[in-house]
Design a protein that fits this description.
- By secondary structure, the chain is of the alpha/beta class.
- The protein is built from 17 helices and 14 strands.
- The strands form two sheets. It has an eight-stranded mixed sheet. Strands 11-10-9-12-13-14 form a six-stranded parallel sheet, sandwiched between helices.
- A hairpin with a 2-residue loop joins β3 and β4.
- It is globular and about 70 Å long.
């Protein structure tokens, strides 16, 4: 083990130094602790993070928590739908496969190719067949189904066919497949006719971050935005089309006609923010709060009574979700209600809340009225169940053991 090298390839990974310790970095830290020689290979071209390193040359190497980070300089782009984003995928993979030649690295023993970009399938296959490495394909988003369902891309579009072909190659030639969604095996079986090599390793929690990196929001922020003497239902995250928050507003419309003290907080930003604000303009039980730093999110969540999540009713979600916000929510020790009609996990496993059908505002409103009538003690016990489940079963030290078991399976 001590001499074995693991390359974790993910174009959109990041480390705490540049704004976020992503899933990949957390796993790399655990792999390094176990004695592996670990490289996280990522790119400084991303729409997700605004403070990534700028450097001359093709590569930048840094040390982080016992592993090495290799940054690949790629085409910069400004929007997620930019053509340059697709070009940056190809550019990134080209210079990933050239690493052994240009940097003189010894061959990897285990390669994890993590989507996005799904083109990392090519790198995984390359290192498998030219360097005899074990290839693990990690699926964090099901592409191209996500583009079809959430972005409206036609099933007959050439890009859909191309990405479907890559997806099939990944499923067929990977030695193991890891999915962050619990029902991925059903999708893989539908694509290639087998599911025996699919494993569910969900999003995890880095306890160090929650224990040592927390900050309070300012008193002025709360005085300006936080409703007084209300029963607070908080959504924290992106205000995008995939989150189907227009149905939350519809539920708020109904609840205003009831004898209810429920007040919705929608904290964040996104492409649907303007439309949602227009939809809720006459409502007194909805407040939009500006996004805060990740280190400050817990201070808002812990002041709430119920935490809310929501996704659209689309095929891509039939196989389950492993939302990062579930981690934040569970750590806050609050009950969770999620509008979701796909493969259930986490909330039902922990017993810390429930799912209501996607895009059905009446069902959401009825559920929230039920929770509003519960005692504080009952809600606290429910929230504690979520926290216990998260810290005991979803921390990276536990999940990494499941991951490393695949290295020699």
């Amino acid at each position: 083990m001590e001499n074995e090298s693991v390359w974790y390839i993910s174009k959109y990974a990041n480390i705490r130094k540049y704004g976020a310790e992503t899933r990949q970095a957390s796993f790399c830290k655990e792999f390094a602790k176990a004695g592996y020689d670990v490289k996280l290979i990522t790119s400084n071209s991303s729409h997700l993070f605004g403070a990534l390193p700028k450097f001359k040359g093709r590569y930048l190497e840094e040390s982080e928590n016992g592993f090495e980070v290799v940054w690949v300089d790629a085409f910069q782009y400004s929007t997620a739908t930019s053509l340059k984003r697709i070009l940056s995928w190809f550019w990134f993979e080209l210079f990933v496969v050239l690493l052994p030649v240009l940097k003189g690295y010894k061959k990897p023993d285990i390669v994890i190719a993590s989507s996005l970009s799904i083109l990392s399938v090519f790198s995984g296959c390359f290192f498998k067949y030219f360097y005899n490495a074990k290839f693990i394909f990690e699926v964090r988003d099901i592409w191209p189904q996500t583009l079809v369902d959430l972005k409206g891309l036609s099933k007959k579009h050439p890009l859909t066919y191309f990405l479907s072909w890559i997806e099939k190659i990944g499923y067929k030639y990977a030695d193991q497949i890891v999915g962050t969604m619990p029902g991925l095996a059903l999708h893989v079986e539908d694509v290639i006719g087998q599911k025996n090599k699919v494993h569910f390793i969900p999003q995890g929690v880095s306890l160090d971050f929650y224990k040592s990196k927390q900050e309070l929001v300012s008193v002025g922020y709360l005085e300006e935005f936080w409703p007084k003497n209300k029963w607070i239902v908080t959504y924290a995250g992106t205000l995008g089309t995939a989150n189907a928050l227009n149905y939350v507003i519809d539920a708020a419309v109904y609840l205003e006609t009831q004898n209810s003290n429920i007040h919705f907080i929608l904290m964040g930003s996104g492409g649907e923010e303007r439309n949602l604000k227009e939809q809720a303009i006459k409502l007194k039980n909805v407040t939009f709060m500006p996004r805060v730093k990740k280190e400050q999110v817990q201070s808002i969540l812990k002041k709430s009574d119920i935490l809310l999540a929501s996704v659209k009713k689309e095929k891509v979600y039939e196989f389950g979700i492993s939302l990062n916000k579930f981690i934040d929510y569970m750590y806050a020790k609050k009950p969770i209600v999620c509008m979701f009609s796909g493969y259930p996990s986490m909330i039902n496993e922990a017993g810390c809340g429930e799912f209501t059908p996607s895009e059905e505002p009446q069902a959401l409103a009825d559920c929230l009225l039920k929770y509003e009538a519960m005692s504080k003690d009952t809600l606290n016990k429910m929230g504690q169940k979520g926290y216990d489940f998260l810290t005991e079963q979803r921390n990276f030290s536990v999940l990494s053991k499941k991951y490393m078991a695949l290295f020699h399976d």
